[in-house]
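Ticket closed. Logging final result for Mannose-6-phosphate isomerase.
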Amino acid sequence: MAGDSETRPWGSWHVIDIGPGYKVKRIEVLPNSRLSYQTHTHRSEHWVVIYGKATCIIDGVTTIAGPGESVDVGVGQAHRICNETDEPLSIIEVQRGGYTGEDDIVRLEDDFGRAEAEKTATA
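Final structure:
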């Protein structure tokens, strides 16, 4: 729902708008933090950097994006946003697909012990 937000160990996200087949979020990434390396089964993502410098990893390829630049992530591609600077990073994320729920995440690597492989290894 628009207005939903969550604080995570790496920063926070805030839903700006949501409708059939899409969701728009503002993602704030703390300095020297990064999100999980993850995939989605039901959605693609389009990231636009608002301020800061994003290090974007998509299927193992690293791209640096600054304010006004964008990066696309296809359905099923492994991806991660990193803030490798001492400054804040803000990104607008547009999700497109038949399902945009928060449970459409498969974590491959995670700095906070939330990856599926890590859960299996410690179970």
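Residues 58 and 79 are 4 Å apart (CA to CA). No further action required.
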